[in-house]
Design brief:
With about 725 residues, this protein is α/β, with parallel strands linked by helices. It is built from 36 helices and 18 strands. The site of adenosine-5'-diphosphate has 18 residues, from helix 3. The site of zinc ion has 8 residues, from helix 17 and helix 18.
Length: about 725
């Protein structure tokens, strides 16, 4: 992350800064139940809480909300949060209330008396945060109300909506610049997850943020695994296999191009026992609303949708986004796949594409009524998307460089990194394919051309006399689908163009000439079958370490959510349940150390979850001692704790916990389990000796987080404290 300072940040005097910092951390830990700030969060909170402006570029799931919520709690008065996503406001407000924060929203979905009540609370200083739609904010009545209220700050969410170049332009956003004129002393923070350099400049200029500090945290979504495979003509089966193998009980989105395909796919997945609901503009408003809210509220619904679905979906636990058709640009692909894994846990972006996709999209473009300049841009965008599909190297590097956020190493978490594709010298085959186009008069589509290359007995071919061509039957080294793949690659690379006027016939382009003449070679990727990518379960440790407890925790969460009519994740995120599963707290005090369990939630739900954990206690002890002995066995075979964690697909903390158990029972020596020099060992022992009750966290903090909890646990076990 780097900070581009337009100006020097407004520095508060040092003692004040330190105080702010401590207060911010206290809110983070007590109200939200999180251990530490992530990345730039702390600096952003300082900047805004200290009265300065900020522009925050942070990828989805990066943790933007805390950047304005915590300053809102630190400053006196109410923070006004401008957001275009009316459908989500209520959920955001519900989530804040769960933390004990006083929040409300004002938008067209409220009745007159509800709105009146909210306005009353605002005027009385009875709100920490107020979410408002931009059009509402700009009403004279609303501005007058603000004039008479104490304001903490303005947060402008989805700030890229102010850009006319972006695809989410909202005219109401342009007027937000008056906030600066009307309330010059109130700090403003604008946030977005999608803004290239040009859009960034536009945001600064239009929102009058010239003196804001820009916190640019890039675009990368490291937890999303990008995978793009070839549609082998059985896309539905491939999809089903992917879901069954990797996302059996997960929430996910499946994108299709047409309404019919949406309906068919949803019905088919349902017939296979999955909960899959359709969403497209052809359904009634009511039906759409119903399907969307089931998706938002439950934790294992699949929504099958056209691109009409998406804006404003910030469900954090979407574990996969699947594309059964090619998006028309990288922007669209990144936005759609970006809906996966907002909670930072592993998620998949999985796509299938084939020749027909390429042809359909090219046809749609040629058919559009747009002007030539616009069409040219669209063509470039599609070409970039196709380039991404056919790429041999790291997909993430290509994606990020497309957004001017280059990454200097391969990511290790995309299909090409995990299973490097094989390539082959396709020059000769390409020459055959191209020359077949030429010799048949550039009037035929791919199916016909492949038949000619394969020397098929066919009346049409005979009728045109193409069975006498030199290219007839010269292509037996590849089969039908391999030739189709090759043609798709030639089209994707712009060596052939598709003509829609004549039913998808293909023509040579200028770029084909050097290949045909043998002046240039062509290396292409061999298509892998989708299933060859290394498989992974995104919830490995959950499912494998204790599936019964995991299910029970989820069920408890669901029941509590239903009681209150809020989405399940508003009670606790998956990450929090996972942490519970790992630590298996037995007391409220232990539970309070689980990430995401703040004071209010501890009070409200602590007992209920402890009960669930205790109910599963017996079973747990058994299975955990089994799995512990497996870890110890591997250690004895010479594997390091890290290697054991990798091999078993469990976390390193779990491995250390297993080892600590064995140390405590005398089965293992400390020195067998962890490598620590004398000085480090003494330091840790010192910390434990001086801690009040031998709890890990104070010791961890005392040592500035230098040693993993697991190591501390092992030392503690050896000390018998
Ligand atoms: P964004 O708005 O940038 O997409 P959110 O603000 O919704 O992201 O945060 C994404 C997830 O990360 C949420 O589940 C949030 O509770 C969690 N989160 C944010 N900051 C922290 C932190 N410092 N420690 C732990 N979890 C965090
Ligand atoms: Zn990669």
């Amino acid at each position: 992350m780097h900070i581009e300072a337009n100006t020097i940040p407004k520095q508060s005097p040092a003692p004040h800064r330190q105080q702010l910092q401590e207060q911010a951390l206290e809110i983070l830990q007590h109200t939200y139940g999180y251990e530490a700030f992530r990345g730039p969060q702390s600096d952003i909170v300082q900047q805004v809480a200290g009265g300065g402006d900020a522009l925050v570029l942070m990828p989805t799931g990066g943790g933007k909300s805390l950047c304005f919520q915590i300053p809102a709690l630190l400053r006196s008065g109410t923070a006004i949060v401008v957001s275009p996503l009316i459908a989500l406001m209520q959920d955001q407000v519900d989530a804040l209330r769960q933390y004990g924060v006083r929040a409300a929203c004002l938008n067209s979905s409220l009745s007159g008396s509800e709105a009146f009540e909210v306005e009353h609370r605002l005027r009385n200083g009875d709100l920490d945060l107020l979410y408002v739609a931009p059009e509402r904010l700009m009403m004279p009545r609303m501005l007058e109300l603000l004039d008479n209220s104490q304001l903490a700050l303005f947060a402008i969410d989805e700030a890229h909506c102010v850009s006319q170049w972006g695809h989410d332009f909202r005219p109401e956003y342009i007027q937000l610049s008056i906030l600066h004129q009307r309330y010059p002393g109130i700090p403003r923070i604008a946030l977005t997850a999608t803004a290239d350099a040009r859009t960034r400049q536009e945001i600064i200029q239009r929102l009058a943020l010239e003196s804001a500090v820009v916190f640019n945290n890039g675009f990368d979504r490291p937890n999303i695994r990008y995978r793009i495979a070839e549609n082998q003509g059985n896309a539905r089966d491939q999809l089903l296999r992917f879901i069954r193998n990797e996302h059996e009980h997960d929430a996910g989105i499946v994108y299709c191009l047409s309404r019919k395909r949406v309906d068919d796919t949803a019905a088919w997945l349902s017939s296979k026992g999955l909960t899959a609901l359709p969403y497209h503009a052809g359904l009634s408003q009511e039906q759409r609303q119903q399907n969307q809210s089931r998706f938002l509220r439950d934790d294992s619904v699949i929504i099958v949708a056209t691109i009409a679905f998406g804006m404003g979906i910030d469900k954090p636990d979407v574990r996969f986004v699947a594309h059964l058709n090619l998006p028309k640009s990288i922007e669209a692909y990144y936005q759609e796949t970006g809906r996966a894994g907002r909670d930072g846990l592993p998620a998949d972006a999985w796509m299938l594409y084939g020749l027909q996709d390429v042809i359909t999209l090219k046809q749609m473009q040629q058919n559009s009524d747009a002007n030539e300049a616009y069409k040219r841009i669209e063509r470039h965008k599609l070409d970039a998307m196709l380039g991404l599909c056919e790429l041999h190297d790291c997909r993430r590097q290509a994606l990020l460089s497309y957004f001017d956020d280059p990454m200097d190493h391969a990511c290790g978490n995309c299909d090409n990194c995990l299973t490097p594709p094989q390539t082959w010298d396709a020059t000769i085959a390409a020459q055959k394919a191209l020359s077949c186009v030429y010799r048949t008069g550039q009037r035929f589509g791919v199916n016909y051309l492949v038949d000619v290359l394969l020397g098929k007995e066919d009346d049409r071919i005979k009728q045109f006399g193409h069975n006498t061509l030199s290219t007839y039957g010269i292509g037996n080294e590849l089969n039908n689908s391999e030739w189709r793949t090759l043609y798709r690659q030639l089209i994707s690379r712009g060596l052939l163009s598709v003509d829609i006027e004549s039913h998808g016939s293909v023509q040579l382009t200028e770029a084909a000439r050097p290949i045909l003449k043998g002046e240039q070679t062509l290396v292409l990727r061999k298509m892998l079958k989708a299933s060859k990518t290394r498989q992974r379960n995104t919830t490995p440790m959950l499912a494998s370490s204790n599936p019964a407890l995991w299910e029970a925790l989820r069920n408890k969460r669901k029941a509590l959510a239903e009681e209150q009519g809020v989405p399940a994740y508003v009670i606790f995120h998956d990450a929090t349940l996972m942490d519970m599963l790992e630590r298996q707290p037995q007391t409220l005090e232990q539970l309070s150390r689980v990430s995401g369990v703040g004071e209010r939630k501890l009070d409200a739900y602590g007992e209920a979850f402890l009960e669930v954990i205790q109910e599963h206690g017996g079973e747990l002890a058994n299975s955990s001692s089994d799995t512990a002995s497996h870890s110890i066995e591997l250690l004895c075979q010479g594997l390091s704790p890290l290697e054991i964690a990798h091999k078993r697909d469990i976390t390193i903390s779990t491995v250390y916990r297993h080892l600590a158990g064995a140390i405590r029972s005398g089965e293992l020596e400390l020195a067998d389990a962890v490598v620590l020099d004398d000085k480090a060992l003494q330091e840790i022992q010192f910390a434990f000796e001086h801690s009040e009750d031998g709890r890990l966290k104070p010791v961890f903090d005392f040592l500035d987080g230098e040693y993993d909890y697991g190591i501390l646990e092992c030392v503690k076990a050896a000390m018998h404290v």
